[in-house]
């Protein structure tokens, strides 16, 4: 029987024991040099800030520095509003290769962004707003593939903005109140949530953003053209009409009057149609109340069809009247104008049904728009609390977290509307791989890394709100048109028990600290099970405890290679890297929740593994 190579042992020791020093001496000296230049005369004499070669940035908690939980590496440098008056040396701060967040908002820092900005490979947040920075933006910005939020507003930057369209995770781009020129920067507008380039010197056409941003985002750019910014042309002097032109004008007038008559007739027909429709709707409501939902519509989708049981009705008559109120539509072009009545009338297809609700594929506008509608009954949470939660989740957002487009809330049920994801779930993809469908090692490690980053981001953004996913499983990892994974149903449930076989479940949005900690750690457990599915190729069928127990038993017997998906081994996947991912999974499903790593640590470990895989693949 094959045994695991001894070369893996150093890596395992690193994962299992996490023994490491803090940032090395070279990084520490670079950070000290960075602060010496940045502070000017302000902080040079303030010894309480640290930032010197005789102390450690993590252990001695330098001013504005945050590190990982093991105090090994610098994760954040946040120096906002400290009246710093020196010069920005981005090259020195980017020596901290694990840096995720860099912010010097509202200071008086001068200088420019050098090409060394590209060395901050892991950077996700860059905030430079409210300083005296100038010069051109470096081309190396396009190398920051993990960047999510970018704010250089209220500075003196000039020149063209590099093409950043390949940074697919970017959700915020603020560059207002600078002297930037050229065309509007090339960005992936499909993911952007916040965008502002007002008060610059941009010129040329506006990009197609499909109405996601208002004219305020573009204003103050005199030479910028497009549908959001109009330029009035000076009126030209009227020329005298010739007899021939006068005759043509008479014909035009006649045609115009005829057109008005036709338009008036069309308006009358439309008004009549609306009045008839309203009358039919009132009749339908009365019928809806008398007979119940199941007798309301037989040939098309109604809300009672969301369950397949005739004994289930939507609600009482009063609840049915409330159901005709508008949905709460969140900021999304796809859901603008969507009404509850539209969902009642639209054809639908049942996609799945579980203990927490049902999910439907709903087709609107003659099939040109496809949405997914999630319905859950008997949630013990008020409509106000549910609405606040949905708004907060939408505000947090992440490109790989499936956000609701709209929602409806009543006492007895909740409806959530999502963009339909056409390529199924991770669970189905794993089932397909067992039947010969291709799902190679490179694709699996990419799914693991993408989902880990998305969850780490949401855990950080929503830690104070206490909102974890609550029901993380491979069936809730969906794939969009580009086969990018998206985590669905984030924050809809809160686990009441860590026992996977337990059927108990809490739907109340409690802020009890113990429950919050347990919820986040339950997410780690759920993600660990997903990792086990990826390395074994065995999707969970009902009870995830069976997979966990089987993997643990095989590992205890030291037949670890038997765990791995045979298809991956046949394609030549690295046993070493498979073993590392397995060890990460085992750390995540540790029976003691407080000994599990946090999601940020998991994301770093998996991204490191993915980087090694990418380098290995590039040399093949």
Automatic annotation (TrEMBL):
Residues 345-620 form the Protein kinase domain. This is Protein kinase domain-containing protein. The keyword Ligase does not apply. The keyword Transcription regulation does not apply. ATP binds at residue 374. Residues 1-22 form the signal peptide. The chain crosses the membrane at residues 254-276.
């Amino acid at each position: 029987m094959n045994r695991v190579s001894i070369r893996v042992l150093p890596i395992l020791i690193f994962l299992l024991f996490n023994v490491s020093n803090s940032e090395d001496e070279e990084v520490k000296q670079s950070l000290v040099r960075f602060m010496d230049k940045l502070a000017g005369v302000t902080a040079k004499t303030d010894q309480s800030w640290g930032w010197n070669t005789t102390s450690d940035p993590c252990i001695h908690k330098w001013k504005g520095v945050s590190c990982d939980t093991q105090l090994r590496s610098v994760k954040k440098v946040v120096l906002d509003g400290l009246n710093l008056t020196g010069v920005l040396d981005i090259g020195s701060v980017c020596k901290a290769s694990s840096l995720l967040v860099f912010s010097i908002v509202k200071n008086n820092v001068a200088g420019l962004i050098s090409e060394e900005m590209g060395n901050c490979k892991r950077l996700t947040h860059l905030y430079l707003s409210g300083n005296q920075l100038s010069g051109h933006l470096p081309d190396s910005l396009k190398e920051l593939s993990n960047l999510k939020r970018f704010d250089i507003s209220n500075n003196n930057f000039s020149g063209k903005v590099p093409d950043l369209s390949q940074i697919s995770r970017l959700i915020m781009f603020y560059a207002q109140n600078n002297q930037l020129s050229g065309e509007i920067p090339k960005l992936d507008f499909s993911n952007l949530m916040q965008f502002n380039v007002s008060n610059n010197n941009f010129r040329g056409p506006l990009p197609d953003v499909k109405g996601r941003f208002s004219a305020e985002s573009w204003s103050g750019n005199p030479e910028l053209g497009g549908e959001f910014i109009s330029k009035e042309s000076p009126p030209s002097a009227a020329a005298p009409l010739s007899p021939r032109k006068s005759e043509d004008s008479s014909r035009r007038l006649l045609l115009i009057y005829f057109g008005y008559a036709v338009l008036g007739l069309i308006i009358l027909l439309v008004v009549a149609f609306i009045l008839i429709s309203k009358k039919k709707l009132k009749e339908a409501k009365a019928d809806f109340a008398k007979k119940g939902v199941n007798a309301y519509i037989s040939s098309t989708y109604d809300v009672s069809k969301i369950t397949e049981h005739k004994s289930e009705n939507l609600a009482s008559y009063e609840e049915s009247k409330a159901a005709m109120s508008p949905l709460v539509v969140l900021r999304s072009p796809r859901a603008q104008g969507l009404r509850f009545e539209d969902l009642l009338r639209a054809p639908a297809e049942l996609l799945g049904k579980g203990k927490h609700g049902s999910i439907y594929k709903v087709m609107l506008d003659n099939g040109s728009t496809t949405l997914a509608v999630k319905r859950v009954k008997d949630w013990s949470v008020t409509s106000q609390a549910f609405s606040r939660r949905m708004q907060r989740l939408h505000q947090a957002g992440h490109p790989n977290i499936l956000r609701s487009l709209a929602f409806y809330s009543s006492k007895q049920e909740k409806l959530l509307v999502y963009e339909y994801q056409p390529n199924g779930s991770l669970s189905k993809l794993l089932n397909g791989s067992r039947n010969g469908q291709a799902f190679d090692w490179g694709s699996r490690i990419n799914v693991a890394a993408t989902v880990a980053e998305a969850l780490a981001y949401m855990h950080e953004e929503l830690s104070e709100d206490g909102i974890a996913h609550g029901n993380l499983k491979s069936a809730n990892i969906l794939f969009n048109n580009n086969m990018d994974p998206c985590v669905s149903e984030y924050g809809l449930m809160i686990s009441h028990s860590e026992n996977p076989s337990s059927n108990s479940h809490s739907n109340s949005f409690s802020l009890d600290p113990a429950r919050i900690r347990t919820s986040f750690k339950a997410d780690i457990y759920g993600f660990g099970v997903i990792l086990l599915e990826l390395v074994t190729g065995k999707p969970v069928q009902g009870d995830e405890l069976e997979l966990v127990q089987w993997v643990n038993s095989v590992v205890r017997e030291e037949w670890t290679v038997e765990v791995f998906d045979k298809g991956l081994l046949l394609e030549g996947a690295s046993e070493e890297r498979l073993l590392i991912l397995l060890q990460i999974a085992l750390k995540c499903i540790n029976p003691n929740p407080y000994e599990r790593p946090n999601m940020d640590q998991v994301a770093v470990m998996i991204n490191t593994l993915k980087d090694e895989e990418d380098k290995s693949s590039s040399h093949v």
